[in-house]
Design a protein that fits this description.
Blueprint (H helix, E strand, L loop, with lengths): L6 E3 L2 E3 L3 E3 L8 H9 L4 E3 L3 E2 L3 H4 L5 E4 L14 E4 L8 H17 L3 E7 L3 H14 L3 E5 L9 H4 L10 H4 L2 H14 L4 E4 L8 H11 L3 E4 L3 E3 L2 E2 L4 E2 L5 E5 L3 H14 L4 E4 L6 H9 L4 E4 L1 H6 L2 H16 L5 H4 L13 H4 L3 E5 L9 H5 L5 E6 L2 E6 L9 H5 L5 E5 L2 H8 L7
Parallel strand pairs: 3-4, 3-17, 4-8, 5-8, 8-9, 9-10, 10-11, 11-16, 16-17
Antiparallel strand pairs: 1-2, 6-7, 7-15, 12-15, 13-14, 18-21, 19-20
């Protein structure tokens, strides 16, 4: 029996917290319906902008780095996605027709349809928002994220400094908040702001400012700027510049979600970037995300990947006896410690080898940065020994031991400090 995955996102009841991101898989009526039929709780439509250059350029080229094709590439090795994607080939005014054609179907299937767009001025943001709401969008996503040139003057031949796109617009908190206030006064459906990862250092402050301006929530994150090199051909992968998504970004997203939720739990957060497993959806929910977005992964693995996530998420809730997604959300935050709390709430430990389990592989000696481990050999048999007077209890040897032959035991703070200073006698 599967668990109940229904929850609330942006103040709207949804059947589950899984969201399909605003990529090319949500650029037409048929494609949006495909993700609705796959069971997603919400779908963000492809970004439609008022910048005609981005309707057609740069060329939408995709590049996978480190992707293994065996088994349809589902070994879940960390691969990197590069792209130079454009926006929808039409502006928000015309793309609204796509929303109008699919909005009733989304409502019938209990899927929240989130219209994503970018405009060229404060007034145009508000006008496009009204058009999208009139077309039947259940919520709006303001694209303050996608990488782009600072003012677009090189491509749109315009001097208006408010004509900024994506992450460069987000660098101006005052202007971004002005846009949110204007949109909020123009529509009554929820507003979600898509934030750029280049502003990670101030994401908490930016999210709170947008919330105060009238946004219901924020998205963390879409792609970042990056580059890799094809060493065989001494050339950059793709065109030498582009946007990148990799599993390695996930830890950053989880950290930033935690910081925002702890500062203001009223902000709804749609979190993503780097999700490759259903377990990672659980991680994001456990630190307080209201919903989890997948985009790149379903493009590469197929829409069925979303169905797998939902199935495994349901099994997990049942196995752990969580009553609902809401019962799961934010659970890990209760155990988050500030650096200043570690001394009082964490007990020092020391490592100890279980002799009859040790295979004398030497891994513990290789990784010990405190010179506390030595492998001794006698009559062809070896065993690792840990000098407790030098071991500071970092636990790395315990985690890498292939035989699970290293345990940890508590020690006093005095014993820990003595071991910590053992390599600095007389100091």
């Amino acid at each position: 029996m599967y668990a109940n995955l229904s929850t609330t996102f942006l103040g709207v009841p949804v059947k589950n917290p899984l969201v399909s991101g605003a990529g090319p898989q949500a650029g037409t009526v048929n494609l949006i319906k495909k993700y609705i039929d796959a069971g997603f709780g919400a779908v963000c439509t492809k970004t439609a902008s008022q910048f005609e250059y981005y309707h057609r350029y740069p060329y939408p080229r995709y590049h996978l780095v480190g992707y293994e094709k065996a088994g349809r590439g589902r070994a879940f090795r960390d691969w990197v996605w590069f792209h130079n994607d454009h926006n929808a080939p039409v502006g928000p005014e015309k793309f609204a027709k796509t929303i109008a054609q699919v909005s009733d179907y989304a409502r019938e299937k209990n899927c929240l349809l989130i219209g994503t767009f970018a405009a060229s001025s404060v007034d145009e943001w508000a006008r496009c928002a009204e058009i999208y709401q009139g077309a039947g969008a259940g919520a709006l996503e303001l694209n303050f994220c996608c990488p782009g040139p600072a003012t677009l003057k090189d491509v749109i031949k315009k001097d208006d400094m408010t004509a900024r796109f994506g992450d460069m617009l987000a660098e101006d908190t005052e202007l971004s908040c002005e846009i949110v206030k204007k949109v909020r006064s123009s529509v009554d459906i929820p507003i979600l702001c898509k934030l750029p990862p280049i502003l990670r250092a101030k994401s908490k402050e930016f999210a709170n400012a947008l919330y105060q301006a009238g946004a219901n929530g924020v998205e963390l994150y879409a792609n970042n700027k990056g580059m890799r090199v094809d060493i065989e051909n001494a050339a950059p992968v793709a065109f030498g510049c582009g946007t990148v998504n990799t599993h390695g970004h996930l830890a950053e997203t989880i950290y930033d979600v935690t910081q925002i939720v702890l500062s203001n739990p009223k902000i709804n957060i749609m979190a993503g970037r780097g999700v490759r497993r259903w377990e990672e959806v659980v991680e994001l929910l456990m630190v307080g995300a209201s919903a989890v977005e997948v985009c790149t992964t379903t493009l590469v693995y197929g829409v069925e990947f979303g169905q797998e996530i939902l199935s495994e998420l349901s099994r997990f809730l049942s196995r752990k006896q969580y009553a609902s997604v809401d019962d799961l959300r934010g659970r890990a935050l209760k155990k988050v410690l500030k650096p200043s709390e570690i001394k009082e709430k964490v007990t020092p430990v020391v490592a100890k080898v279980i002799g009859d389990k040790c295979s004398s592989c030497g891994r513990c000696e290789e990784v010990c940065a405190y010179e506390a481990v030595t492998v001794f050999y006698k009559a062809g048999h070896g065993v690792a020994k840990i000098d407790e007077s030098k071991c500071i209890g970092c636990t790395l040897c315990n985690q890498i031991c292939p035989e699970n032959a290293i345990t940890l035991k508590d020690r006093t703070d005095e014993e820990y400090l003595k071991a910590l200073m053992s390599r600095h006698p007389g100091v």
